[in-house]
Write a structure and sequence with these properties.
The protein is α+β, with helices and mostly antiparallel strands. It has 14 helices and 13 strands. It is about 35% helix and about 25% strand. Strands 1, 2, 3, 4, 5, 6, 7, 8, 9, 10, 11, 12 and 13 form a 13-stranded mixed beta sheet that branches. This is GNAT family N-acetyltransferase.
């Protein structure tokens, strides 16, 4: 537990349980599941290696105006793979990253979900002023604790869409450096799609044929909803499948503990989606996701890669997310990062995301700026599967 003295503008908490429910109600953030204690507590209790903390910003009358979620994690350089290898090597040569120990990283944001899920600002607030106050509050949080001040190597504030950049660029005043990351792939649902057949009818012939082929190849898969009664028996298998996907990822901040699914299903009920894909009685894949307001956010998936091509497992998963969203009358599917090209083939388009990073040491932070200029999202061929609107 980190003990941080409150200031005139910021209140600090080491657990979501410490924040008065009235404060969160006054902020108006409870409708957003990512700022709801049910969701945040599920993450807390299942990730003991992560240090969770929270900041409530207040105005001159001590009324809450913003809520920020902080996490302190150990980031291992070896988790950077593939096309990021050259960045890892440059980072080592410039001594930006520790050689023999993990980088101690303070993150403002959700480490398990892409998007603006780390900072909630109450309506009718000066957002630029709030962002500046947030940066100052994070600085106070670290520097008021001698042990923490010594431990923290860098600060990361994530993920912001293009529409927010004019606001979040105020972080540059506090020596944060922006850089682009892999986009969130977003599918906006047509209001005319009343069922999946309507979605299929909106596709160009080539992509409709591809979808029907995926359903044909995957027809032997048995897709089942995971319930609280069945989840414990299924966890060992889906952990194995998740590990395979996580191992192949080019970049992971932290590993997700799948035991969290038990708590999420218990606390969120039907708003948390968890399905398995079985072949001959064996689990060969799973999907997870959360219904948040009018959006379906795809979370983690697991795939038996040996069977993926033959049974079109992953492609079927992408279509199943669409079926779920249509059934629940949702507006948007956030497919997240990775596999951008195949996600674009079902209709998703890239939503640019920007993060802000700052090294605690002045000289290294100046070098970091040059380093981050080399960080670019992986290019991909965007597909356009829909017929042109008449």
């Amino acid at each position: 537990m980190i003990c941080c003295t409150n200031t005139n503008t910021a209140l600090y908490f080491s657990s979501i349980d410490e924040i008065p429910s009235e404060t969160l109600k006054e902020l108006g953030c409870l409708d957003n599941l990512y700022f709801n204690p049910k969701f945040l507590k599920s993450l807390e209790i299942n990730h003991p290696k992560i240090t969770f903390s929270y900041i409530i910003l207040v105005d001159n009358l001590k009324n809450p105006i913003a809520f920020a979620s902080l996490k302190i994690v150990d980031f291992h350089l070896k988790s950077i793979k593939d096309n990021f290898d050259f960045l890892k090597n440059i980072g080592r040569k410039l001594h930006l990253f520790p050689e023999t120990k993990p980088l101690k990283l303070l993150i403002c944001g959700n480490t398990f979900v892409s998007g603006e899920h780390g900072v909630f600002i109450k309506n009718n607030q000066d957002k630029k002023a709030v962002v500046k106050e947030l940066a100052a509050s994070i600085y106070h949080f670290v520097n008021s604790d001698k042990k923490l001040k010594k431990q923290i190597d860098a600060f990361l504030i994530k993920d912001f869409v293009d529409a927010s950049i004019n606001i979040t660029n105020k972080l540059k005043l506090y020596n944060y450096h922006p850089f682009s990351v892999e986009p969130n792939m977003v599918l906006k649902l047509d209001t005319n799609w009343l069922n999946f057949d309507d979605y299929l009818a909106s596709l160009k012939t080539k992509f409709r044929v591809k979808a029907k082929k995926a359903f044909k190849l995957s027809k032997e898969l048995v897709i089942e909803d995971v319930t609280l009664a069945s989840i414990e028996n299924i966890l060992p298998k889906i952990k194995s499948l998740y590990t395979k996907v996580a191992t192949n990822a080019s970049f992971n901040l932290v590993d997700f503990n799948l035991e969290t699914y038990i708590s999420l299903k218990e606390k969120l009920g039907e708003n948390y989606i968890l399905k398995t894909y079985c072949l001959n009685g064996e689990v060969v894949g799973f999907i997870s996701g959360v219904i948040n307001k009018n959006a379906l956010d795809a979370h983690f998936v697991g795939i038996d890669y040996r069977l993926n091509r033959a049974y079109a497992i992953y492609q079927r998963m992408l279509y199943n997310y669409i079926e779920i969203a249509i059934k629940n009358n949702l507006n948007t599917i956030n497919y997240g990062r990775t596999a951008s090209e195949i996600k674009s083939s079902v209709g998703a388009t890239p939503q640019n995301l920007t993060m802000y990073l700052r090294h605690k040491k002045t000289i290294k932070n100046k070098i970091l700026k040059l380093f981050l200029q080399r960080v670019q999202p992986t290019p991909f061929q965007q597909k356009f599967p829909f017929k042109k609107q008449s």
